[in-house]
Amino acid sequence: MLKTLGKHLYGFRKDSVMTPVFMILEVIMEMVIPLMMAAIIDQGVNGNNGAGDMGFIFKMGAFMLVAACVGLFAGIMGGKYGARASAGFARNLRKGMFENIQTFSFSNIDKFSTAGLVTRMTTDVSNIQNAYQMILRMCIRAPFSLIIAMIMSFSISPRLASIYLIVVLLLGSLLAIMTRFAMKYFGEAFKKYDNMNESVQENVSAIRVVKAFVREDYEKERFGTASGNVYKMFIRAENIVVSNMPAMQLAVYTCILLISWLGAKMIVANDLSTGNLMSLLAYCMNILVSLMMLSMAFVMITMSISSAERIAEVLNEESDIQNPENPVMEVKDGSITFKHVNFGYHKTAEEWVLSDIDLSIQSGETIGIIGGTGSSKSSFVNLISRLYDASEGSVQVAGIDVKDYDLDVLRNQVAVVLQKNVLFSGTILDNLRWGNENATEEECIRACQLACADEFIENFPDKYQTHIEQGGSNVSGGQKQRLCIARALLKKPKILILDDSTSAVDTATDARIRKAFREEIPGTTKLIIAQRISSVQDADRIIVLENGHLNGFGTHDELLVNNEIYRDIYESQTKGSGDFDE
Question: Rounded mean pLDDT of the chain?
């Protein structure tokens, strides 16, 4: 974990080194001042047989002022470098996680919830940032101050300094015990954070549904439960951690009383000077303040350990799908071959999601894919662009296993319009150019004409400069689907996959889109997943899937004769007057 996080200190290692250097300098100045105070009392005030030495007092006073100024400067610079190092470290962690997430395959993404990833990149990174700043400042300053003060105290009076040593050992043991128990609850608390963020995310993204079904009270109760769980876990952890403060205060006052009492007796017995007693009390406060700093750092570090583990989990996650060593850099055509393919989302799955799929599709064919809900239609097409990898068997494009292609090359030639259409904040042109960032406006307009999107775009006041809200909330489902189809067409792919992506358009528009595909991109292999027979019946061939098995593969007329599932779907949809919007 530490090695993983340490890699992300790049660019801020100098700041990470300079912070403790200035902290140590500040401590040295603080440790020198009590010695000067003792010298002023013993030599400047009580020297010359009690007559004092004003010259010595002014001289040592000037040295104390210089030491204080140097300590102040060191403290300021330590704070500056510490803030820069911790903020930079946090920036690198967020960047590292985000970049690694971009490499994830769908199977990797399935391991993490969206809310969990958001929590890791916000709350968890903030915890690490605060903890790292404390490590660079307090966790360097406090131990160094404690050790130097202890050494100085033993050099003055080993008998009195032994009091500090006993207190430090007792408090160190107490902190270790508290850390062990608190870490358990902090780890659970951040998991509850994920649940709370998930509740917020679902509520905000589906607010229209919530209001339509008048479920506001239910959502409030759900969020209250999630928030309450976070509260309970943090209370349990904080109840353990907070007990360190009374223990610290007890140690402080006990040390002051014992040193004052024993020190006074030693002064009377001429075993200790007044100045040395003052130095010991100053070192006592330094030691105990250092312990107080360590206790505060202990709270933050205890919280951050769970956060660090969660961040390292994302940073260490390796994509299940990797580029081969010498990838193929060209997709020659759009032919597709499945050779006895089995697929499961998990390696330990007892049953395959797709089982023994064996078929061949020629380049330029239009292939319909139909089947009931849960028949693994989406899983089937996801294997072609390597969004998932086949568990057994091979998937080939242009006669070459998809695992042998460069990922970017393959996915640029296999355009997928997913079942869940997503648009991003920006203009319509901005969204279209996700398909081809160098596309001209004329090319974008032509793609929209093929996808039958131009007819509604032209009705917008700003036309192609119309701003799309986050998630495409200001366009209808059918409009969103057509924009996504146009975006995919701009890639000019060898293979175009429409995963039920015309379900929100009427059959007339659906027919126009399919006609445009036949006439304008005849060389592109088109795979159309649909629930409506009318969307696939004029395809060159149709795949019928049932529970992950290939139940039928042929033309519309062939399947009507020899495939019972296809015939039943056809008759149920065309019986009577047919599709209501045909």
Answer: 81
Q: What is the chain's Cα-based Rg? A: 36
Q: Where are the alpha helices (DSSP H) in 269-387?
A: 274-316, 377-382
342 beta partners: 392
- Please tell me the distance from the alpha carbon of residue 393 to that of residue 407, in angstroms, as a whole number: 19
**What would the pLDDT profile of 342-367 be if each residue is shown by its tens digit?**
988 877 667 888 888 999 999 988 89
CB within 8 Å of 402: residues ≥ 6 apart: 383, 384, 385, 386, 395, 396, 410
Say if residues 50 and 43 touch (Cβ distance below 8 Å): no
In one letter, which amino acid is 333?
A: D
* Closest by Cα among 379, 381, 337, 376 to 359: 337
C-alpha dihedral, 322 to 324 to 330 to 333, nearest 10° = -70
With a cut of 90, say whether residue 487 has pLDDT above it: no
Buried/exposed code over 274-296 (b: 16+ C-beta within 10 A; e: otherwise): ebbbbbbbbbbebbbbbbbbbbb
Cβ pair 127, 151 in contact under 8 A: no
Structure tokens at 105: 């395959």
Query: Do you know the residue count of the chain?
Result: 582
For residues 189 and 468, give the distance between their C-alpha atoms in angstroms, rounded to a whole number. 37
Q: Which residue, among 100, 98, 106, 101, has the nearest Cα to 385 in the 3D structure?
A: 106
Determine the 3-state secondary structure of 357 from DSSP.
strand
- Encode pLDDT of 237-281 as tens digits: 777 777 767 777 777 778 778 878 888 888 878 777 777 777 777
| Residue 489 burial (10 A CB sphere; 0-12, 13-18, 19+) | buried
The answer to whether 97 and 315 are in contact (CB under 8 A) is yes
pLDDT digits (tens, 9 = 90+) for 159-217: 877 877 787 777 777 777 776 777 677 767 767 777 777 777 677 767 777 777 777 88
Whole-angstrom distance, CA of residue 413 vs CA of residue 400:
14
Q: Which two tokens stand for residue 460?
A: 């917008």
Provide the 3-class DSSP secondary structure of residue 425.
coil
Q: Which tokens belong to 269? A: 């017995």
Could you tell me if 187 and 306 are in contact, meaning their C-beta atoms sit under 8 angstroms apart? yes
Close Cβ partners of 294 (under 8 Å, ≥ 6 residues apart): 138, 139, 142, 143, 146, 175
User: Is pLDDT at 46 greater than 70 in this prediction?
Assistant: no
363 Cβ contact list (under 8 Å, min separation 6): 333, 334, 335, 398, 494, 523, 525
Q: Nearest CA to 140 among 178, 85, 89?
A: 85
What does the DSSP assignment read for 501-549? TTTTS-HHHHHHHHHHHHHH-TTSEEEEE-S-GGGTTTSSEEEEEETTE
Q: Are 417 and 498 in contact (CB under 8 A)?
A: yes
- Angle among Cα 46, 47, 53 to the nearest 5 degrees reads 105
| Ordered DSSP codes for 224-259 | HHHHHHHHHHHHHHHHHHTTHHHHHHHHHHHHHHHH
- pTM higher than the cut 0.85: no
CA-closest candidate to residue 97, choices 411, 387, 308: 308
Strand partners, 359: 338
